[in-house]
Amino acid sequence: MIKKLLITVVLLVVAGGGAVYFYLDGLVKSGIEVVGTEVLGSEVTVGAVSISPLNGSGSITDLRIRNPEGYRADSIFELGFIDLNVDINSLFSDVVVVNSITIAQPVITYETRITSDNIRALLAQLPRGNGAESTAETDSGTSTQIVIRELQLLDAQLTLSAGVASAPVRLPDIVLHDIGTEADAATIAEAVRVVLSAVSSAVLRADLPSMDLLQESLQNEVERAGQAIDGALDSLGNRLRSLGN
Question: How far apart (Å, rounded) are the C-alpha atoms in residues 199 and 186?
Answer without folding.
Answer: 18
